Amino acid sequence: MEQARRLSAARRTRRADSQGDREAVGSRILVLAIFVGVVWGVSGFALLTQSEFLLYRLALIPRDFGALAGIIGMPFVHGSWLHLISNTIPLLILGGMVMFRGIRYFGAVTFMIMLLGGVLLWCFGRSNAHIGASGLAFGYLGFLVTRGFYERSWQSIGVAALVVFLYGGMIFGVVPRDDGVSWEAHLFGLLAGVVVARVAFGLARKRQQAFADEDPTGAEPDRPSAHWRQP
Predict the structure, then answer these.
(1) Which residues have C-beta within 8 Å of that of residue 182, sequence separation ≥ 6?
(2) pLDDT value of residue 91
(3) Which end is more exposed in the chain, N or C (fewer Cβ atoms within 10 Å of the end residue's Cβ)?
(4) Could you state, in order of their start, the residue ranges of all structural domains in the chain?
(5) Structural fold of domain 2-228
């Protein structure tokens, strides 16, 4: 009788865990869709209304203190529908790979890539108006590949290999080729992703070491990446 109760409790726990996992996946998909939807909403409004005010208010113009908002706003405006569509696919795919580890994880990585990449572009880019989310997509690319290098888990290495297979050709976007393409945004976005992945891994490793030092049982801590796996 006792064994039957335990089996029943175990089944209920598994069902609850499964339902929780489905809800978590649904929430992550929804948040990613909302983020990309905001990009489409702002860009679409600017394109439909031909709003130069909105376009230049959110554009990043290097070394222009009046354009500091572009450090964060640049990914939300695009120069054409084709520009917007071409950036949407890598945002969804690469952003989805980042989102796999949780909403807060995705938010932190996205914000840090936008901030660091934007600051570098503002400091060192050409004195033109830079717009578009391609720098963020390059940031995701650099982050995912670098994360696989440092974590060296089967999951992170597999994701990194898939990213290289799907989007390895993007790396040529950091080479100056066309005056109308912000190759600096690509380059600094990529570098920002690399730096964010390295810093995140270092912070997680320090937390793991602190946990190991404080744990009196001497239990082996999880891999450093586990600290970033938040729902």
Answers:
(1) 121, 125, 128, 130, 131, 132, 134, 135
(2) 97
(3) N
(4) 2-228
(5) Rhomboid-like fold (1.20.1540)
CA 185 to chain centre: 15
With beta carbons less than 8 A apart as the criterion, state whether 192 and 142 touch: yes
Task: Please state the φ and ψ torsions of residue 111, each to the nearest 5 degrees.
Answer: -65, -45
Find the largest Cα–Cα distance for the chain: 77
Residues 6+ apart with CB under 8 A from 194: 142, 143, 146
For the record, the structure tokens of 71 come out as 């450090």
What's the token pair of residue 177? Answer: 């080729």
Q: Which two tokens stand for residue 117?
A: 């990449």
Q: How far apart are CA 6 and CA 3, in angstroms?
A: 5
